[in-house]
Specification:
The chain is mainly α and 85 residues long. Helix content is 55%, strand content 0%. The radius of gyration is 24 Å and the shape is elongated.
Length: 85
């Protein structure tokens, strides 16, 4: 396998780790290895993206054809609700 590492965990962290291991059906050591791999992968592995970075490729993709939708969105919603009521 590799090198053995001993780590002392606070009781609360150990309980959470044990609970997650049981929930996903893995050993605690497997989860710890996975967490260390994500940590060492850098920011992209840690999931520290800002919300904008997660959807930036979607922004501006859809065109509604309504030039002032951002300014008059409430008016357009009310019109649509009245039509479908």
């Amino acid at each position: 396998m590799g090198v053995q590492l001993t780590v002392r965990l606070p009781h609360e962290l150990n309980a959470r780790l044990k609970e997650m291991a049981e929930r996903v059906g893995l050993k605690r050591s497997d989860l710890v290895r996975m967490a260390i791999q994500r940590l060492l992968a850098g920011p992209e592995g840690m999931g520290d993206d800002r919300p904008y970075e997660k959807v930036q490729d979607l922004i501006g993709v859809i065109a509604t054809g309504v030039a002032d939708l951002g300014e008059r969105h409430r008016d357009y919603l009310l019109q649509r609700l009245k039509r479908h009521a």
